[in-house]
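Hi, does anyone understand the following?
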Amino acid sequence: METFFQSHAYLIEHTNAPVRRALMDTIDWSYRLIGIRGPRGVGRTSFLLSYAKENFDPRLRQCLYVNMNSFYFQGRKLVDFAADFIKAGGQVLLIDQAFKLPSWREQLIECYERFPYLRIVFSTTSVRGGENNHTELNSIARQYWLHGFSFREFVNLQTGENFRAYTLKELLEDHKTILKTILPKVRPWEYFQQYLHHGYYPFFLESRNFTENLLRSMNTMIEVDILFIKQIELKYLERIKKLLYLLAVSESSSPNVSKLAEEIGTSRATVMNYLKYLEEARLINLIYKQDESFPKKPASVVLHNPNLIYSIYSPDISEQQIMETFFVNALWRHHTVCRGKRDSLYKINGNTDICVCDRSKRVKSDPNTILARYNTEVGRGDNEIPLWLFGFLH
């Protein structure tokens, strides 16, 4: 136990989160069992350590961070470790990468039932490995999602400002007023290309090469989060990686599932399953026609965020594809994003049509259609909104 306390103190001392994540104030920290879900690279570990640093003096030993990568937990049950922690005066146990623990759901439930005065916060991947059927864990754990940086968070970090997030309703109805609160202080378009290239994942703040870090995380998402959790044999790893590459470099976002199946040497049904796994890992976003969903074929597939596009370099990727990827990423977590009746058109929440287009492109559209314009800081009419402003939705 002493070794874990020493490691915790060292990590807390060396934790430096330049941006305080909004999720920190959303969570009800009084709850006894809290789950933090999220894909690789978005800062789950830093989030747990930042919470500990903000709220607990490591010298009092009330809070302890432990990572399930430790071989220690291969030989000792979590419930026994928790009992020792409580005897030492512990109150809050932070369990990172809980899914690495054998029978981790059952062990968390056992801790919850045996120790009514212990609070547990655990982190796990975005890939699901049976939670939907694990009703007991779902009923006792309050789970939250941690995502990558929004463009708003990136701008705040780069400029020292503290712009707030807006609702989609505010954006659509009052975007001109919102622009008047932002543009006198900063020129967001000057930071937009940086964000598209490297602003989504917090490790751009590290001194190491960003692209190498991202590629490493992407490989781990597939090799560990998908293969390990979905219990897929290692011999199929190459197929999943090739599928992701083919999706990334395709000139069209509309997938030809039969052709993809032929190219990676598997069946259409398997490709559909792989697409769902890649979506859970937050490597791609699947966009369906209205009133359709998995297991139907998606109307289009885009990478989860633009940073991924730049990491899988392809000279055929157009500016339009990059901007649509940003748009989908900005809206998908809180809104239903469906494919519209034509290219570049999206139906949001079943009732709002938004077309993503360049500032110079002439668009024939219904007057009720919103135009999300890129390569501009402002819109030119009541129904035109600069695309970057959608990055202020969270």
The longest strand covers residues 352-358. The radius of gyration is 22 Å. The chain has 15 helices and twelve strands.
